Amino acid sequence: MARPLVARAVDAALDRSVVLGYTTIGLAVRRALPGWPPDPRPGVLAGRQVLVTGASSGLGTATVEGLADLGATVHLLVRDEAKGAAVAGRIRAARPGSELRLWRCDVADLDDVRRFARAFAAEVAQLHAVVHNAGVMPPTRTESPQGHELSMAVHLVGPVVMTEALRGVLAGGRVVLVSSGGMYAQRLRADDPELVRDDYSPTTAYARSKRWQVEMAPLLAERWAADGITVATLHPGWADTPGVQESLPRFRTLTRPVLRDDRQGADTSVWLAAVEPPPPTGRFWHDRVERPTSLLPATRPDRATRDRAWAWLRQVTDLT
Ligand SMILES: NC(=O)c1ccc[n+]([C@@H]2O[C@H](COP(=O)([O-])OP(=O)(O)OC[C@H]3O[C@@H](n4cnc5c(N)ncnc54)[C@H](OP(=O)(O)O)[C@@H]3O)[C@@H](O)[C@H]2O)c1
C-alpha cells in the first residue's frame, strides 16, 4: 500500500526529531499511520535457513526469535558457546519445535571467520539471509587479532569477509547489516579507517564504523548482485539491551521510560530478512522505511572519499 503524504510527513518529522523517532513513541506512531509496511506473511521462512550474528544478547536474540516465529531454521552465531546454549535453550523452551543451531565464532578474528564460513558452507547448502548484528563499543582503542580497530573489525571487516566466504551458499539471498542512528553524526573517514589519528572516543569509534557500514552497502550490493544477493543496512532506534546498559549507562538512565524493548528494536532486521519481495538492494532502513544516509551535507561523502574507503575495504578483506 502506498503511504499517504501526511503519513510520510509525520514519519519524517519523527525521524528528524531523533528522540521521538528512535524510541517506542516513534514505532507506535508509525505503526498506527496508514501505509505501515505489512508484516511478513506467517510461515514465510518455513524451510529456509537464516544466520544471525551476536545472537546471544539483546537485539540478536530477539531477531532469532522473530525469524523462528516465521518458520526459519535459525543459525545462532555466538562467541561464547555456554551463553549461546543458554539463550538457545530459553528460546526453545518458549517455542517448542523451533529449529535452532549454534555456531561459535569471533567475528573480529578473520581466521576464525574463515574457519566458521568453511564449516558452515560444508553443512548448509542454501542460506536465505545473514543478519550481521554483532556489535561492540570498546571502552579503549582495541585491535583485533589481525590488527584492525575493534569496532571496524566487528561491524565491517568481519561481516564482509564472512559474507564473501558464504557467497556460494548465499546466492539469491539477503545480507542485513545492523548499523546505528549514531552514524548520522559522523562522516566517512577514509583517511583514518583504523582510528589512529584522533584521540580515541568509544562513541565516535562506534559511530564511525557504523557510517562505514552504510556507505559501503551500495558498493557491496553492486558486487554481490552478480550472485543475486541483496544488501540492506538499518538502524534499530534505541532499545534497552545489555549492550546499551553496559556501554551507555547514563544515556539509558535518561531515556529508559521510552526505550524500545528487544523485539521492537529487532523489528526491521526481521522484516528485511523475511518480507517478500526482497526490499531494493543497497539501501538504508529504519522502522521498515528507507531513510536518508546523511542529514547534514558535511557527512555526505564525495566520490573520491567513497572510492578511497572502498579501496581500503577491498584491501583488508582480500576482495579481488
Ligand atoms: N540497542 C540499541 O539501542 C542499538 C542502537 C543502535 C544500534 N544497535 C546495534 O544493534 C546490534 C545489537 O546490539 P545490542 O544492543 O543488542 O547489543 P548487545 O546486547 O551488546 O549484543 C551484542 C552482541 O554482539 C556479540 N558480539 C560482540 N562482539 C562479538 C564478536 N567479536 N564476535 C561475535 N559476537 C560478538 C555479543 O556477544 P556476547 O553476548 O558474547 O557479548 C552480543 O551477542 C549492534 O550491532 C549494535 O551496534 C543497537
Short précis:
The protein has 320 residues and is α/β, with parallel strands linked by helices. Helix content is 47%, strand content 11%. NADP nicotinamide-adenine-dinucleotide phosphate (NAP) binds next to helix 4 and helix 10.
Describe the structure.
- With 320 residues, this protein is α/β, with parallel strands linked by helices.
- It has 2 domains: 1-36, no CATH class; 41-317, Rossmann fold (3-Layer(aba) Sandwich), CATH 3.40.50.
- The chain is 47% helix and 11% strand.
- It contains 13 helices and 8 strands.
- The chain has helices spanning 5-17, 19-22, 24-32, 58-69, 81-94, 110-123, 150-165, 167-170, 202-224, 242-247, 249-255, 262-274, 303-317, and strands at 49-53, 73-78, 100-104, 129-132, 174-178, 230-234, 283-286, 289-290.
- It has an 8-stranded mixed sheet, with helices on both faces.
- Strand 7 and strand 8 form a beta hairpin.
- It starts with a helix and ends with a helix.
- The structure holds NADP nicotinamide-adenine-dinucleotide phosphate.
Instruction: Provide the structure class.
Output: alpha/beta
Global geometry? globular
Indicate the CATH topology of the largest domain: Rossmann fold
Poorly predicted spans: none
Summarize the amount of helix as a percent range: 40-55%
Q: What is the element string, with H for helices and E for strands? A: HHHEHEHEHEHHEHEHHHEEH
Overall pLDDT score: 96
Tell me the total number of β-strands. Answer: 8
H/I helix tally? 13
End-to-end separation in angstroms reads 41 Å
Hetero ligands: NADP nicotinamide-adenine-dinucleotide phosphate
CATH 4th-level superfamily of the largest domain: NAD(P)-binding Rossmann-like Domain
